[in-house]
Amino acid sequence: MAQKTDVSAQDRKKRARHRGPRSAPAQESGELYAALDLGTNSCRMLIAAPQGPQFTIVDAFAKSVRLGADLERTGALSRASIERTIRALQVCAGKLRKLEVRHTRLVATEACRRAKNGRAFIEQVEKRTGLHLELIRPEEEARLAVISCAPLVEAESEHVMVFDIGGGSTELVWIDVSGVAADQRAEAVMRLDIRGWRRAGGPQDPTPGEARIVDFISVPLGVATLHERFDDVEDESARFALMSWYFEEQLTKFRPYTDLDVLDGVERFQMIGTSGTVTTVAAAHLGLRRYDRRKVDGLTLSVAQIETVIGRLMTLGPEGRRMDPSIGKDRAELIVSGAAILQTLIRIWPTDRLGVADRGLREGMLLSMMNREGALRLGNRHG
Question: Are 70 and 141 spatial neighbours (Cβ–Cβ below 8 Å)?
Answer without folding.
Answer: no
